[in-house]
Amino acid sequence: MKKNKFFSSDRIVTIVNTLILLLICVIMLYPMYFTVIASVSEPVDVATGQVTFWPKGFTLDGYKEVFKQDQIWVGYRNTIIYTVLGTLLSLVMTIPAAYALSKKKMRFRDGFSIFFAFTMFFSGGLLPTYLLVRNLNLVNKWYTIIILGAFSVSNMVIARTYFQINIPDVLYEASELDGANQLQQFFRIALPLAKPIIAVIALYYAIGRWNDYFTAAIYLSEADYYPLQLVLRDILINNQLSIGALDTSGMSAEQLLYITRKAYMAEAMKYSIIFIASLPMLIIYPFIQKYFVKGALVGSVKG
Amino acid sequence: MKEKNKEAAVQPDSPLRPKSKKGLGFYLRDWRLWLLLLPAVIYVFIFSYIPMYGVQIAFRDYTAKAGIWGSKWVGMKHFIRFFNFPNFKLYMENTLRLGIYGLSMFPVSIIFALMLNEVRSVKFKKAVQMISYMPYFLSTVVVCSMILLFFDENKGFVNTIIEFLGGQRIDFLTRPEFFDDIYVLSNTWQIMGFGAIIYVAALSNVPTELVEAARIDGASRLQIIWHIYLPSIMPTIIIMLIFSCGGILSASHEKILLLQNSLNLSASQVISTYTYKIGIQSGQFSYATAIGLFNNIVNVIILAIVNTIAKKTSEISIW
Prior knowledge:
Strand content of chain B: under 5%
CATH topology of the largest domain in chain A: MetI-like fold
Strand content of chain A: under 5%
CATH architecture of the largest domain in chain B: Orthogonal Bundle
Strand order of the largest sheet of chain B: 1-2
Number of domains of chain A: 2
Largest interface: A-B, 94 and 102 residues
Order of helices and strands of chain B: HHHEHEHHHHHHHHHHHHHH
Helix content of chain B: 55-70%
CATH class of the largest domain in chain A: Mainly Alpha
Largest sheet of chain B: 2 strands, antiparallel
Number of domains of chain B: 2
Oligomer: heterodimer
Shape of chain B: globular
Largest sheet of chain A: none
CATH superfamily of the largest domain in chain B: MetI-like
Number of helices of chain A: 14
Number of strands of chain B: 2
Structural class of chain A: mainly alpha
Radius of gyration of chain A: 26 Å
Order of helices and strands of chain A: HHHHHHHHHHHHHH
Distance between the termini of chain A: 41 Å
Number of helices of chain B: 18
């Protein structure tokens, strides 16, 4: 490298590169940053566009209102239940199947592989699935949300590749000599060694479930079963938020002012809700992202 | 987990445990592995194959009373109806336009990965990468409500900035001409960092001797990127490109439905959202199934074509 020249082309590359990357960071972070500062600013200032880089005024009224919204907390509870139970169900189906398919000598392995792979290209689609769920009498049942989407072929392929690459055949051969059958091999050898990939697959499923609103939107009508994302859709997208009736007749100026502020509050609350709803992910994603990276890498290896 | 332990307990002294005998036992040798596959096979059979079987209602006039078999066979009626539907061309165009626009963002993750690869400081690189993943973890509903809030004509900060810079406030959310940008660019915002992971990994496998040799020969950094790094990750790029092309007609109805309003419909109604509207909302099951099936078939054809081209030109393919 030529270090003597101050304005060498390489140096310019470094400077421009760093600047663009910093700009990218700002673009990635700003929307969430803005959400946070807007959620604690004076509602009127947010609504009139006074807030850009720093909070204006400081109020936690938005959050106080959010804590009064029972539906959000019911949604939170439901989502946690759906995510935990759903992810467990997914793992129980995905990991053993992935292990079996990782065995190259298994009889009818190709047949099973095609059976699964075919569904990645063709599907019955929205309506035939809907009719099936209806015929199974699963509409508007809370457990429908857990059952649907419990298995993903691409997640299974990732786990299968992991089994193939990371668990040496020698281990199985050794245990065979000790008289272990295939199930014992799975539970005693493969499963303990598969902890990293189980974590990856569990997170893939869990994030998918946490963030899903569509399944619930189609199959649930009972509000008590709504997952958080569907509650959010109703509040944030469809504007179904009630913070008291707006009867302005016979009100004093002060009361009117109060009402006006409350009307603005409905908008400002949205920022608080977005933040509260995203908080769990924002807290845990720096810790779990390495698992996602791992999953993406295993998935990229052609099995 | 409990269930499986039970299965395991039954195994050891089972009569079906042939070691060397040929015959039925020879073929059933792996029944324990099949047992592990069973839950997944049953699930996929019920929730993927039965709906595939149900797709035949696209060729029938389905009524709940008559059921799938009992409903009258009408052949291509629903497909013909869709092709003759006045808005067919518009919805097809919308779907394709969003797909192609989305595909044009394909290089963004690659460029980002190449830029990260040029960073010397490990800490800075890690920090930028971590920050770039953040939007990926936000839900569709949250991202869409952010869009609705930020781009609002009167209250959104985007318009505040435009006005501050001397421009006019624009109603982004109801004007059809802005829909594509909002949809595609917000997608790019969400997946750019995460999509780069695979390329960053591929780049870290490029042999350093190769890069050093080029440097000694006097190649500039841009030349090294162009002549060494980019060709090295080309196989990864092609695989990802094939998959992206396969999804060209699968604009996300989950996201579009959240951004759709009566005023931007002329740009935002795509085949999958129309399927939803016709099927789930108006209950025309057969017609909606036909539309969905048509979309699926076109997708597979595109994937097959792209895969063939890739195979011929670069000997890389997904099957």
